[in-house]
Amino acid sequence: MSNAIKLSVPTFGGNEEVYTKMAIGSGQLATNGDFIDSFEEKFSNKLASHEIVALNSGTSSLHLSMVLLGIGKGDEVICQTFTFCASANPIIYLGATPVFVDSEPETWNISPELLEDAILDRIANGKKPKAIVIVHLFGMPAKIQEIMSIASRYQIPIIEDAAEAVGSTYRGDYCGTFGDVGIYSFNGNKILSAGGGGALVSSKINLIQRAKYLSTQAREDLPYYQHLEIGFNYRMNNLCASVALAQLEQLDEFVEKRREINANYRKLLEGFVGISFQPEANESKSNFWLTAILIDEEVTGFSNDQVRVALMKNDVETRFLWKPLHLQPVFKEIKYFGGNVAKSFFHKGICLPSSVNLTFEDQERIVDIFKKELAKTF
Ligand SMILES: *Cc1c(COP(=O)(O)O)cnc(C)c1O
């Protein structure tokens, strides 16, 4: 156990214990309380012109975003194929249909060209998409400028799934603040962990107010329970918010640490032909939630699965990149625009341990396994 290295575990080195005790001591554990208010205020201040609503997961935040944009039965929603299922599942919850789009090789996120192809095709078929879900995979900002100009040309709202990109920036602004609505996740292994949690981000105060109303069962402001609409139980609770606030206080530190881990891997694996990293453009600053690499088996002589097994034998946990959604059995009937870009990333890629508490010695041990067990000739 002592030598085990996990893929991504939370670090609770700040005020987590203090705030959690305060939350319990105050008796405020439900979906209203001081920590929810402080967390939202502190996070909103960080995002400048945007506000957040604290919710209970990234998935519920995506679902609520789509409700706010009026997505419903029979609608089509474009979604990046190279992502976790939670980006697309809420489309199905609403009786709408996803349309998947492939990635481009420069950020590994949705290809602007293929996005436009998909929009034009769907419009030609009388099915103008109701929204576009873009994702910043492993924390890496997508080609936001290009995507936004296409979205505005066709007047289609963007839902920015920044679940993995809390603290990442693009041209100096935070990911999550570019779309009509953005979302974050604070689940157990994301860069900020609140046990479970999420947030919805918007610059539109009416959307923020409506998100607060709908996420607390759409209760009218009356002395008894009166409902004019169907709501959701999606609000973050005050106990989770106490952890979330303590984590938020350390966000800048966490981002710098994960970036340092990424830079160390790049240095340690430098000159190892056949291994390449998720590229970062000048205009982007990834939080490097996870360091992701591609292994060209024809060059290295070993596959991503051999890396996984070799590291597992040494108690080191890794994870394959997301299996593209258009290749998931559950989505096999769904329309797809693109080729084999995301698919080849899935076949070649692997995520390396990236926890904030990872030491340089841990990283050396991991890279030594590459050198000793895998590349006998390195
Ligand atoms: C984690 C994640 C989500 C879902 O967040 P939860 O808080 O686990 O519900 C959504 N999209 C992406 C890309 C994620 O990585």
In quaternary terms, these chains amount to single chain
Give a count of the beta strands, DSSP E runs of length 2 or more: 14
User: CATH superfamily of the largest domain, please?
Assistant: Type I PLP-dependent aspartate aminotransferase-like (Major domain)
Helix content: 25-40%
The rounded distance between the terminal residues' Cα atoms is: 29 Å
Number of domains: 2
Distinct ligand kinds: pyridoxal-5'-phosphate
Instruction: Please write the CATH class name of the largest domain.
Output: Alpha Beta
> Hey, roughly how much beta strand do the residues contain?
5-15%
> So how many helices?
13
By helix and strand content, what is the structural category? Answer: alpha/beta
- Average pLDDT for all residues: 96
Modified residues (N6-(pyridoxal phosphate)lysine): 190
Pfam families: DegT_DnrJ_EryC1
GO molecular function, one term: transaminase activity
Protein name: Pyridoxal phosphate-dependent aminotransferase
List the keywords.
378 residues; alpha/beta; Aspartate Aminotransferase, domain 2; Aspartate Aminotransferase, domain 1; 2 domains; 8-stranded mixed β-sheet; 3-stranded antiparallel β-sheet; 13 helices; 14% strand; binds pyridoxal-5'-phosphate; aminotransferase; pyridoxal phosphate binding
